Amino acid sequence: MSRTKSTVVIAALPLLFIVGAVWAETTVTYGRITAVNRVSQHSRGAQTSGTIVGGMIGAAASGNPVGTVGGALTGRKLGRMTSRRQSFEYTLLLDGRSTIRMVTDEAGMRVGDCVALERGSFNNLRLVDEDRCAPKMTPTPAALTEANACIKAKEQLLGADTDETIDRAERRVRLLCDD
Question: Is residue 25 included in any domain, yes or no?
């Protein structure tokens, strides 16, 4: 590599770190819930696993292709039933001008509630005081600290790999991310 190319690469590295830091920045926006809808989310992985396990059980129990297909269909149906998760779709009016929709498993929020929408590597919705929904309200340093703590807890949950660390990370998410 020539000296000029090395200089360009070395000069560009700090810029990449700055762009990465800005991209991963957590933001907090205040808004009001304008609509709430119940939705069901499905896990494709559970349906696929149910199909495979059901097919193996059908094959082992009957020893013929018809039993394998019947077991696979039954397993898929069971997988579909167990993979449904009740969630809520909240429509938020932000800054009195724009709306967004967010799907979460957090229940109990109603139309008219003032909420903080925390966005970073993960998103979170948190009930806040009514005064936070005043026009041109900016987040306090404490609100940003709370949002960052929640997002960090969700990242730790995603990286947990043992029963103990998963349990601890789930408790941290409940404590730091719920209102």
Answer: no
The pLDDT score that the predictor gives to residue 107 is 85
The total domain count for the chain is: 1
Asked whether residue 70 is domain-assigned, the answer is yes
In a domain, 95, yes or no: no
pLDDT digits (tens, 9 = 90+) for 9-56: 454 444 444 444 444 588 999 999 999 999 987 666 655 665 566 556
Q: How buried is 54 (Cβ within 10 angstroms: 0-12 exposed, 13-18 middle, 19+ buried)? A: buried
How many Cα atoms sit within 13 Å of 129 on the Cβ side?
A: 7
Give the range of the structural domain holding residue 75, as residue numbers without chain letter: 43-83
CA–CA dist 80, 74 (Å, integer) = 10
